[in-house]
Amino acid sequence: QVQLVESGGGLVQAGDSLRVSCATSGFSGWTMGWFRQAPGKEREFVAAIWSNGRTRYQDSVKGRFTISRDNAKNTMYLQMNSLKPEDTAVYYCAARTGPSGEYNYWGQGTKVTVSS
Asked: What's the count of helices (H) and strands (E) in the chain, helices before strands?
């Protein structure tokens, strides 16, 4: 059974940095992604990383967030710098077993709160 477990969320101030992690039961060849859902809003895409290392970002986080993966540790990361109050959300890790299509697996989420 595939498991995704996020960690690293917390309360920070605007301008601070934070790194969230996603530990998996195995993701060789998978495409991994981060999504977030702010209070009262729909879940939105944040970033994705393919098995070959290619990445893609939502425009609002480009230059501030960096997605990465450590295949030896089956872990994905999202380094978030220059955080803004509008980055406040529950951050979800997601995985799909192919290069495109729907994400098949989801974590339980980790909450990130950015105070002004």
From this structure: 0, 11
